[in-house]
Amino acid sequence: MVTSIIRRLIQAVFVVVAMTVIVFIGVNVIGNPVDILINPDANQAERARVIAHYGLDQPLWRQYLLFLQGLLHGDFGDSFVYGRPAMGLILERLPATLELAISALTIALVFGLPLGLYAGLYPNRVSSKLIMSGSILGFSLPTFWVGLMLIMVFSVELGWLPTNGRGPTLELFGAQWSFLTGEGIRHLLLPAFNLALFKTSLILRLTRAGVQEVLPQDYVKFARAKGLRERRVIAVHVLKNLMIPVVTIIGLEFGSLIAFSVVTESIFAWPGMGKLIIDSINLLDRPVIVAYLMMMVLLFVVLNFIIDVCYTILDPRVRLDSKA
Amino acid sequence: MTALLQVRNLVTEFGGAKGRSGIRAVNDVSFSVERGRVLGLVGESGSGKSVTGFSIIRLLERPGRIASGEILFDGVDLSRNSEEEMRRLRGKRIAMVFQDPTVTLNPVLSVGTQMIEAVLAHESVSKDIARQRARDALGLVGIPSPEERLAAYPHQFSGGMRQRVAIAIAFLHKPDLIIADEPTTALDVTIQSQIIAEFQKLTEETKTAVIWITHDLAIVSRLADDIAVMYAGRLVETGPVSEVLNDPRHPYTAGLIASVPSQNQRGERLRQIDGMTPALNRLPQGCSFRRRCERADDGCLVIPELAPSGDRSFRCIHPVTKVSAS
Amino acid sequence: MAEHNMQETDKALPEPGRLSKYLADFFASPAAAIGFITLLVICCLALFAPWISPQNPYDLMQLDIMDGRLAPGSESMTGFVYHLGTDSQGRDILSGILYGLRTSLLVGVLSAFAAAIIGTTAGLFAAYMGRRTEIVIMRLVDLQLSFPTILMALMMLAVLGKGVLNVVIALIIAEWATYARTVRATALVEREKEYIEAARMLRLPGWRILFRHLLPNCLAPVIVIATMQVARAIGLEATLSFLGLGASVTEPSLGMLISTGYQYLLTGLYWISFFPGIALLVTIVAINLVGDRLRDVLNPRNAS
What we know:
The complex is a heterotrimer.
Chain A lengths: L1 H29 L2 H5 L6 H10 L6 H13 L13 H36 L4 H15 L2 H15 L12 E3 L2 E3 L4 H33 L3 H8 L4 H39 L4 H11 L2 H29 L1 H8 L1
Chain B lengths: L4 E10 L8 E11 L4 E5 L6 H8 L7 E10 L2 E2 L5 H7 L4 E4 L3 H4 L6 H10 L6 H14 L5 H5 L8 H13 L5 E5 L7 H18 L2 E6 L2 H7 L2 E6 L2 E7 H6 L4 H8 L48 E3 L2 E3 L7 H4 L1
Parallel strand pairs in B: 3-8, 3-9, 6-7, 7-8
Antiparallel strand pairs in B: 1-2, 1-4, 4-5, 9-10, 10-12, 11-12
Helix pairs in contact in B: 4-5, 5-7, 7-8
Chain C lengths: L1 H9 L5 H12 L2 H18 L1 H4 L21 E2 L5 E2 L10 H37 L1 H15 L3 H12 L3 H28 L2 H8 L4 H37 L11 H12 L5 H28 L6
Helix pairs in contact in C: 3-5, 3-12, 5-6, 5-8, 5-10, 5-12, 6-8, 7-8, 8-10, 10-11, 10-12, 11-12
């Protein structure tokens, strides 16, 4: 098991390095950093100064090493817009995004798992068919449009919930959190539901597919033949097998939730990383863009690693084989 | 004394409901099993033998359902039992062993968990006692170092060992009846013999009646007291094993026996039954075996009754006799 | 009966005779039929938009700022009826939707098609070449699939800059890997079959084996993925345009229309965002229904 974890760690490092190359090439070679960095009205001397400052006159491999060096120190340069270190800006906004993504994932699980289980266990009921058609809708609805409609109904028409910002926050573990105040939760509700919609459908469909795959298995029949109560057959024999794909997907989808939060954050003016990156792309704030991308790469690699470990723990076939 | 299990005119259908009939996988099947006896239920795949077994324990997969008939188990009609009444019988008084041991046990639960839950499903004892029972049961079916094996997962066992675990689970509560659905088909020949021997030992000790579903006449001749031969959902011949195998009356039974390799002479072409088993939704009119039968004539256009003669019965108007067969 | 089906599915593409069977299968589902007809109507609307739409929403000369933000059913100064209202620049929403559909469908089809070609070629190549080529391609695929599409798209747009064309490029780069993985998996199974062995024995040129023998067998999954991908691409384009990274304000796509309506939503002017969103939703649902059914029909496992 230790060797397999080490092997996965090496793979993870490989992915990070590969992504730095891709991001580097993307930003510095395909896009012309001179155009991005320098005011088009700048004079020749100014251009030369900036080029020298960023080392753009150096050969590519040296530039890459410089880039890597900065990366290792978490130094991505100062934001053009805010004039502060880019990484600091990202980190400041990370808790808001995490909070949103975790809330959305929780909602998606709370609704998706039981509904999917129900639809899988009783596929012929009308209610199951309704759930499944609903999930197709959830799949097809563009998130950003749903966000607007949520605002229209719950804020504009009904006036129940606020439309933007995090509301009052409280500090916990050195970061600010909305869910600790009542008003904050009211602010969190709409964005979290908005972000959760797509994932709810996904988890629901996945759960149902899993149930339908597991139910006809002989071991489920055998469990019934032992005289187990139906409750135990479902809760232990079916669910435990179901958890393996579900955990994998939850890990992956959590990352995707963070990426997709750009949309929800833009709509609800949620002050997270996503809102920052969109503003940065619009303003061509290169250091922030690079910092965000590298942050996401790191996040995904860590997530994938955690999923692998969870998977190993959940599935005895993997766990025990790698031990041998 | 009445038999432990009496199946009367059982009809199991797939699909169809409320007046419309579906595909009849089991058609008007009647037989009985006495306490402590072994019935070999024989037929090709698709003959309805497994469905009969699953009908008795009421674990038919949708859209299968018992359309009519009675399944009297110790005087109680199982087909009218509630789901909860059935649950209390399953594993406790009627157990089942499945065909493929590699998929019978849940891959993500330890063998111990799967055995202990089987104990606890019917007895309110402490977990420790249940564990002890599980361990003893494993030892009983010849699994070495049972204490450690309880913590192991199914994939760490060989196929034969997994089938032993399944058998240990089936015998946990010393059931009155075990339905064994081709429990040795997926195993190597050497393992087959061991499993059969194990089974025989346990049934003799516990006086358990067995319905052994198989297509292998050699196993039946070795293990069973009685035999029931199914063809296209119907019983075609029943009786004591030795009599039926030595002196088959139904042409299909005779054909089956003739196609066992050891029954054939060396150098001679292997005998076989011509044609294929008809699809259940396109059965020929009259006797289902008619089109493959050399003896068939216009009289076979009407389905013959299962005619009893002594302790045997067969469903044929032109039965094979020893004289005509040789 | 099962064996019979197995033999049939071994054959690669539907022969002409089987096509009608596939069609019959497809239309056996009412949902799929409705989806298909809706899609057909939408395509026609988009195609003929210049002739049927009441106004050319991209021609600023036709827009009258005085007609801005009129409610659905309002009449313009010149007696023209805006059935779905107007946006802030006095653009007729109905016309905006019809023209926006053009952009959306074009982006969707173009990117899905290009990604399919690139991904299929890469997947076939990986499966056929094996060894190092395969490892390099598949590692790249794995790498890419471990990041969500929208992140890949954002990354590309960060590099390439804003604009519809760049959105198309970003979508192609973000989606090709899905095809490559599926095609490789299918081709790997196919590669082991005897007829490929036979083709190699005959010393047919590599490209011929690839495109004449392997490719047709991989087409069914590619068609299904491509259909679904069109829907995804349309949704993504709308999302990116909504975020201000796609279509320009003067030539709005559906996403851009919704985006311009966003700021007026809070004051109760719902129609600028609402109707284009409905159009988007109907389009995506229709494509998904068709794709869902295609998957069932073309899947050999369901061929009963």
